[in-house]
Design brief:
globular, 3-stranded antiparallel β-sheet, 28% strand, 35% helix, 88 residues
């Protein structure tokens, strides 16, 4: 059994409600997307605040399908800098 849960909201309103009502020990949000001709990814840890971003490059060379797993890698990187006593 995994020691964590995941939640994927169906829309922005539900996501906002979950953010304000969940009492998990660690909340991490991630996304990969395209904007203004570029593909990027981000991961945000809520407390303590850690914000990581990575731009892959233009959307003629990269796709959102590359951005999404890059967001997951940013989550991993954010957890490696998270205080270890809070991860147990």
């Amino acid at each position: 059994m995994p020691e964590f849960t995941t939640h994927i909201a169906s829309d922005k309103a539900t996501a906002a409600q979950i953010i304000h009502t969940r009492m998990d020990d660690i909340q991490i949000y991630t996304d990969g997307s395209g904007f203004a001709g570029n593909i990027g990814a981000a991961a945000v840890v809520m407390d303590p605040p850690i914000d990581l971003q990575h731009q892959l490059g233009d959307d003629e060379t990269h796709t959102v399908f590359e951005g999404e797993p890059t967001g997951v890698l940013l989550v991993y990187r954010s957890l490696t800098s998270y205080p270890s006593h809070l991860l147990c």
